[in-house]
């Protein structure tokens, strides 16, 4: 992966496209110099995608080669028929063409058997655990992405370290003690609708006053206005499906392309509460539609970023509060389980499967047993992708996973 | 431009009363400064009157307004009272903003907001607007009163316990998180107590339960044995813990430092020696009023050490506009807009309240502030054209420089060719989006 060069190139490209050099160099030379210097730092992006309700991993990555699957799923197993085979044992749900293509192209990794010890099987408690990243401390007042945002903040950078993109109230994972994590639907919310008056030259000292910082930030807003407009027009020709998730991801792609320094994006599929992936009855149709939205929206997102090689800066990670029971429940649905797969997508990944599929016979109250603690994925994303110290965010060390190309 | 001389205060004169002289004359800049800190901004008439009255008389009026404040607040309490079964505090949030705008005693609301941030109660966890209202009333009652009386009230406040996930304090499971929060965040500060102090104080909290939003003492869950807290020994109750914590010098230091940050400066951490005399006198009776009075009347307050040395919170930013334009605006959409800028009233991110300072500002929130200013000035939209810059200039007839004087007291100038003929909304918008306007 040649992230740095790639990034610098795409930065210059967007900058030139937006005509930013000429116009803002005039009144903010300090800002430009600083922005160029900041390129030396890591500018990888993490996109976290919450699947609300508890996704049925077994009907997402289907162990069609396992008799126990067919025994446990007398009606729901019908999806195995048109599934996209990954190997002689596993296949993607038939409506996940997009994920299947990403997988074949080495742009998607499936981390199997993810969970944690003594897993909570109630929605709010389980979701809270994934949000705090500390199941033993239910009263923790911050979420793991919020803590990462606090660590990413630097005085005088004017940057937004993290942002939630979506219509639901901001999930707790983004709760930060110190920084403001904005929620937006459209990049236009980051544009000032009327241009603020022109600023003055800003001296760039090592210890600038707050007024200097504000002047620089005002210049940044003006520069962003142009960058965002340019990034938005760059992706109109793109083919995103009409799903809400696809639109949120399109917004994120535009913000990545505008190169605003946002390192963490957070979005959601399923509606935030119970519902969504929580299919206790008549699971087939609803689950099929959600998986299709997931797969095609993420695939469109990666393809869009690929046009500018921006996918090399990207790591997308999905999670859900729990998996579901192996046996369907007599109402053609499934109940709350334990372990489930986590999907990772992006240009820096090795791709393929990570970890074995959990046994369908050695179970935890009819749920799959986990073998990979979810915080190992968090830690890997924090340390090896964002370049943060995961211990300072997670409060403990977790063994990293070997996910990325060297 | 304001004439601000760097005044080399020694520790003896920093807290002495400011008396204008040739080097530091009383002027519009200082009047604006005073109203940003001790209130939520000022109207043109208020600024002009302050110029005539001089600093100390103006401060008299901010500390002890002539109006019947109690009657105003009683009436507002009635207006804002939510139905018993209302879970969401979103209406209450809007009522509070309305009170901040209309109150004859803005300093009281400013300090209520300070304590709201200090105790960081989150309405989502409380899940009852009535209980939140009672919490706010408790904060307001003591906002300029006695911290010694406020703290036991806070310990017995259902909203506080609910917000800290401490609605059931069982003898067998002393709630150390609750005790730690009281010591670390509300009183002593980090590193000034031991784990044992936390454990013992947690035992003293046992027996307190919140049942249907009412606080109850369940006798059989109370731990009435001896406890050892901060070098004291006794069969302490939660009231005793409050008393012990208040009496610690560290508590006075914490509160004084935090109010200094609130009223004087966020940019530079004050020297221990500078705060020592304030902390010592606060430690005598824990009265907030004389502390606030000393700070506001001081030489230091009227110095470059304080001037524009705070970042406006979203509330201060928006209400400064509203006050200056002499009208009120619909506060339901305003509360929503402030939440998007990072200050969701009654829903602070943690028990530590809002971190504030430079963390308020990034390119997203700054663009958001510009857009809020534009929305407030617009003749249509969620704020319904309530604010009318042209009418305000008309009343005070001061031409295109008027808004720079009203909002910035001449601290900044516009470079984009606005003149007497430019539309008043445009000039006002230009003034409100100057970087200087973000500083309190």
Main attributes?
heterodimer; A: 406 residues; alpha/beta; 9-stranded mixed beta sheet; 3-stranded antiparallel beta sheet; 12 helices; 14 strands; disordered N terminus; B: 440 residues; mainly alpha; two-stranded antiparallel sheet; 4 strands
The number of helical elements of chain A comes to 12
Give Rg of chain B in angstroms. 23 Å
Question: What's the count of strands of chain B?
Answer: 4
Number of helices of chain B: 23
The fraction of residues in strands of chain B falls at: under 5%
Q: How much of the polypeptide of chain A forms β-strand, as a percent range?
A: 5-15%
Largest interface: A-B, 46 and 40 residues
Shape of chain A: globular
Briefly note the structural class of the backbone of chain B. Answer: mainly alpha
Largest sheet of chain B: 2 strands, antiparallel
Q: What's the order of the H and E elements of chain B?
A: HHHHHHHHHHHHHEEEEHHHHHHHHHH
Secondary structure: helix percent of chain A: 25-40%
Low-pLDDT segments, ≥5 res of chain A: 1-40
The N- and C-terminal alpha carbons of chain B lie at a distance of 16 Å
Set down the secondary structure blueprint.
The complex is a heterodimer of chains A (406) and B (440).
Chain A: H1 3-18, H2 20-25, H3 29-38, E1 45-51, E2 61-62, H4 67-72, E3 84-85, E4 91-92, H5 97-104, E5 108-115, H6 123-132, H7 144-152, E6 162-165, E7 183-184, H8 210-234, H9 244-258, E8 264-269, H10 283-306, E9 314-320, E10 340-345, E11 352-354, E12 363-364, E13 367-368, E14 372-373, H11 374-386, H12 390-394
Parallel strand pairs in A: 1-8, 1-9, 5-11, 5-14, 6-7, 6-8
Antiparallel strand pairs in A: 2-4, 3-4, 5-10, 9-10, 12-13
Chain B: H1 11-14, H2 28-38, H3 44-53, H4 55-63, H5 69-80, H6 90-102, H7 106-119, H8 123-126, H9 129-142, H10 147-155, H11 158-163, H12 176-187, H13 195-205, E1 208-211, E2 214-217, E3 227-229, E4 232-234, H14 238-247, H15 249-263, H16 272-285, H17 288-297, H18 314-324, H19 331-340, H20 363-377, H21 389-396, H22 402-408, H23 424-432
Antiparallel strand pairs in B: 1-2, 3-4
Helix pairs in contact in B: 2-3, 3-4, 4-17, 5-6, 6-19, 7-9, 9-10, 10-14, 12-13, 15-16, 15-17, 18-20, 20-23, 22-23
């Amino acid at each position: 992966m040649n992230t740095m060069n790639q990034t610098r190139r795409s930065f210059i490209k967007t900058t030139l496209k937006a005509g930013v050099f000429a116009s803002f160099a005039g009144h903010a030379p300090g800002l430009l110099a600083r922005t160029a210097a900041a390129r030396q730092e890591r500018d990888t992006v993490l996109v976290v995608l919450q699947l609300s309700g508890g996704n049925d991993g077994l009907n997402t990555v289907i162990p069609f080669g396992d008799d126990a699957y067919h025994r446990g799923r007398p009606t729901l197993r019908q999806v195995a028929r048109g599934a996209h085979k990954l190997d002689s044992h596993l296949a993607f749900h038939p409506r996940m063409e997009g994920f299947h293509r990403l997988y074949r192209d080495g742009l998607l990794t499936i981390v199997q058997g993810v969970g944690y010890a003594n897993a909570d099987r109630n929605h709010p408690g389980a979701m809270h655990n994934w949000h705090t990243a500390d199941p033993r401390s239910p009263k923790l007042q911050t979420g793991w992405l919020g803590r990462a945002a606090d660590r990413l903040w630097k005085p005088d950078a004017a940057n937004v370290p993290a942002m939630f993109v979506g219509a639901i109230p901001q999930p707790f994972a983004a709760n930060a003690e110190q920084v403001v994590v904005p929620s937006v639907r459209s990049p236009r919310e980051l544009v000032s609708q009327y241009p603020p008056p022109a600023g003055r030259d800003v001296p760039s000292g090592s210890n600038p006053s707050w007024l200097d910082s504000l002047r620089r930030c005002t210049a940044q807003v003006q520069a962003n206005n142009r960058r965002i407009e340019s990034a938005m027009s760059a992706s109109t020709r793109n083919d995103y499906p009409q799903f809400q998730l696809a639109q949120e991801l399109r917004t994120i792609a535009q913000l990545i392309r505008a190169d605003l320094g946002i390192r963490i994006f957070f979005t959601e599929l399923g509606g935030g509460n119970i519902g969504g992936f929580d299919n206790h009855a008549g699971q087939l149709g609803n689950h099929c539609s959600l998986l299709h939205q997931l797969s095609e929206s993420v695939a469109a997102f990666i393809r869009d970023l690929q046009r500018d090689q921006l996918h090399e800066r990207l790591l997308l990670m999905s999670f859900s509060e729990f998996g579901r029971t192996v046996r369907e429940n007599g109402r053609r649905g499934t109940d709350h389980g334990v372990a489930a797969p986590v999907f990772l997508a992006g240009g820096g990944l090795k791709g393929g499967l990570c970890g074995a599929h959990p046994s369908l016979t050695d179970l935890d109250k009819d749920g799959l047993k986990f073998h990979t603690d979810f915080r190992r994925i968090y830690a890997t994303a924090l340390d090896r992708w964002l370049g943060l110290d995961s211990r300072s965010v997670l409060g403990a060390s977790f063994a990293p996973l070997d996910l990325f190309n060297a | 431009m304001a004439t601000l001389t760097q005044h080399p205060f020694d520790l003896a004169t920093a807290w002495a009363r400011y008396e204008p002289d040739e080097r530091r004359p009383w002027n519009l800049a200082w009047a604006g400064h005073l109203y940003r800190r001790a209130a939520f901004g000022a109207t043109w008439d208020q600024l002009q009157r302050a110029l005539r009255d001089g600093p100390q008389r103006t401060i008299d009026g901010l500390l002890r307004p002539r109006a019947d404040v109690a009657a105003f607040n009683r009436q507002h309490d009635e207006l804002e009272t939510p139905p018993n079964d209302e879970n969401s505090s979103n209406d209450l949030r809007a009522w509070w903003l309305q009170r901040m705008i209309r109150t004859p005693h803005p300093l009281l609301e400013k300090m209520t907001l300070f304590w709201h941030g200090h105790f960081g109660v989150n309405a989502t966890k409380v899940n009852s607007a009535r209980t939140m209202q009672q919490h706010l009333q408790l904060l307001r009652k003591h906002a300029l009163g006695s911290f010694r009386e406020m703290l036991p009230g806070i310990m017995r406040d259902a909203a506080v316990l609910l917000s800290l996930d401490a609605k059931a304090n069982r003898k067998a499971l002393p709630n150390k998180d609750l005790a730690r929060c009281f010591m670390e965040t509300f009183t002593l500060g980090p590193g000034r107590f031991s784990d044992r102090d936390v454990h013992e104080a947690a035992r003293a909290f046992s027996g307190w339960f919140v049942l249907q939003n009412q606080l109850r003492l369940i006798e059989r869950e109370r731990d009435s044995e001896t406890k050892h807290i901060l070098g004291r020994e006794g069969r302490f109750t939660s009231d005793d813990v409050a008393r012990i914590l208040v009496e610690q010098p560290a508590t006075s230091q914490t509160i004084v430092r935090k109010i200094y940050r609130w009223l004087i400066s966020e940019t530079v951490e004050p020297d221990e020696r500078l705060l020592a005399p304030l902390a010592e006198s606060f430690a005598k009776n824990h009265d907030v009023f004389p502390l606030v009075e000393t700070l506001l009347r001081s030489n230091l307050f009227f110095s470059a050490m304080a001037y524009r040395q705070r970042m406006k919170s979203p509330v201060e930013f928006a209400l400064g506009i509203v006050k200056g334009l002499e009208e009120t605006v619909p506060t339901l959409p305003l509360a929503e807009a402030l939440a998007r800028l990072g200050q969701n009233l009654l829903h602070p991110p943690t028990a530590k309240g809002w971190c504030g300072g430079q963390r308020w500002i990034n390119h997203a929130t700054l663009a958001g502030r510009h857009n809020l200013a534009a929305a407030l000035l617009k003749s249509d939209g969620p704020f319904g054209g309530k604010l009318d810059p042209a009418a305000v200039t008309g009343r005070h007839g001061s031409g295109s420089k008027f808004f720079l004087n009203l909002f910035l007291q001449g601290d900044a100038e516009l470079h984009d060719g606005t003149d007497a003929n430019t539309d008043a909304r445009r000039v006002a918008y230009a003034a409100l989006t100057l970087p200087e306007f973000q500083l309190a």
